[in-house]
Amino acid sequence: GIIFFLVSLTHLYYSVFVIMFSIVFFAIYIFRQKKVSNKTFITNFSILLTIGLVSTSVLFFSNPTFSHGDEEWVFEAITAETTDGYARSTQEHFLFSTSLENLIVPTPDHTTQMFSDYLLFDSFYSFFGKSIQYLQIEQYAFLGYSVIFLSALAVIKYRQNHIWFWLLICGIFIVMSFGPELKILHEPTGIVMPDKLFYDAIPGWDELRAPARFIVMANLSLAMLASFAVYGLIKNKFSSFKQQLMLASIIGFVILFEFSMIPYPTDVEPIPDIYEEIKNDESKFAILPAPIGGTGDYMLASDPRILYHQIYHEKPIYGGHESRVSYETMSETRTYFLNMFHGLGSNQDIINQDLAIHGLSLFDYFNIKYVTLHKNSLTLHGLTLMKQTMSEILNENTPIHEDGNIAIYKIPKPDSLEPFLLLGSGWHTYVECEPNEEGINCYARVTMENSEILIINPTESTIDITLGIVLKSVLDEKTSTISFNNEKLDVLDVPITRTAMHVENLILVPGVNVITLHTDEVSAYQGSEHKRAFQEEIQIGIIVESLFIVK
């Protein structure tokens, strides 16, 4: 029980699973006992449940605030207030729920389907006249024929005391995995499931957007049922230890093979010889592998090839994200310039400056000595844009290595002494809209509470410049305080119409100079995902369309 609750700390879903399991367990105990008479059991169970609920209550706190530099945001907890303000639709629950046949049809990634050219998977849907289904990862809910057979054998023949409890747990969690409405062949049937009742009745239940994950507890139950059958077979049919060991080995092999997912076919990833030169370069620098992101959740994770290549060159890289990337981590590579090499990025941004003049200086600021374009991870359009960007920066210089898989550029030191712009912390992602799309934040970035503009002076002396900025407010006029190197310069009244302003007489000291735009209202992210957070944030931010140094 303690381990159960420790596991529940890792994710909200596991916490809900444990609570539901505990309720069913306690209800069955009372039903079988007819009355609560075992005081020791009740005391121990109550203590365990209390400790578990207290330890996992952090998952249910309302609006805990976290700090990150000059930014603050509010994480939307699972409370009644969040349901009133924002609720995930039942359609999302329907999408990420189990279809009935998912329980008995192996997925395309299972070894049996790999070696049979997806025979069972394709034949099943073809038999019912359905097109081949592309499964969500949550719908990988195959229970296994061997496990189902052993579980049925345990229920029919080896009726031990606890079999009905585990069968009930299995049934409850399978039904919960069906989501708000039963699906067969991924089509709705109109049969309402308990998830819909909980969605309507329990505040915050909408956040459990992937009911298919309830199948985890069903698998645990089937494992228990199968173990009863194996124990019964060993005890009643096989007397010698060797026979018992052989039976257990055969059953274990069959189950492991049935659930195995062999990454087949495989291929060898070629490693460029130039990596040996990069590896032996003892100077301190980083590599920019492109695209940053481009795969995984929200297309923010990096292609595994990039991390595999890092094993060989052994240098720090930009990006390299795996699994789900947090908003603040993502923002580090969605800033100006690096965003040009992002899988979701753009060559446009609010900063307008000539890359032919400042490109090498920008690379030098980020300490980037090599850029690697991974062709297999880029679309043809994306590869063409990045090559054009590199050609503009390097003045038509070709890569030091190029083959069918990768192009590698070596970045020389800059020779420009012109000041240049970058973005510091406190900016939302640049929004590039479709040609006919309308939006108040199109081709712009939205500020947070404190948004920094970096002006880099590469010389050893001071420089006097004027900064141009094109901006507007959202919904109503906002007040923004401008500071330069921690000294207050001016207070701007930002109208809701597009307005061009100049910040004059900025004396740049050598190195990094910081202009800070401070908005009176406190910025807040509401929601666990950055897309929802941005929708809330835009109501109080300032929209900046352009930044440039006035010549």
Automatic annotation (TrEMBL):
The chain crosses the membrane at residues 12-31, 43-62, 137-156, 163-180, 214-233, 245-264. Keywords: Membrane, Transmembrane, Transmembrane helix. This is Membrane protein 6-pyruvoyl-tetrahydropterin synthase-related domain-containing protein. It comes from marine metagenome.
